[in-house]
C-alpha cells in the first residue's frame, strides 16, 4: 500500500527543467536581438583604435 501512495516526481522534475531551459533560451534570444547590433558596433571600433584598418 505504501508504494501506491508514494509519488514519483521524476516527470515533474523533467518538466521543471524544461521550463527553466525554455526561459533561459528565450532570455538569450531576446538579449541577442536587443544588443546584437550594439555589440557588433563596439567590436568594429577596436581595430581602428589600434591603428589597423
Brief characterization of the structure:
It holds the Pfam family Flp_Fap. With 53 residues, this protein is mainly α.
How would you portray this structure in words?
InterPro entries: Flp_Fap (IPR007047). Keywords: Membrane, Transmembrane, Transmembrane helix. The chain crosses the membrane at residues 21-44. The protein has 53 residues and is mainly α. 85% of the residues lie in helices and 0% in strands. 0% of the residues are buried.
Rg from Cα: 23 Å
Number of strands: 0
Derived from helix and strand composition plus strand pairing, the structural class reads mainly alpha
Cα-to-Cα separation, first versus last residue: 77 Å
Topology pattern, helix = H, strand = E = HH
Shape type: rod-shaped
Helix content: over 70%
Major sheet characteristics: none
Poorly predicted spans: none
Q: Estimate what percentage of residues fall within beta strands.
A: under 5%
Count of discrete alpha- or pi-helical segments spanning 4 or more residues = 2
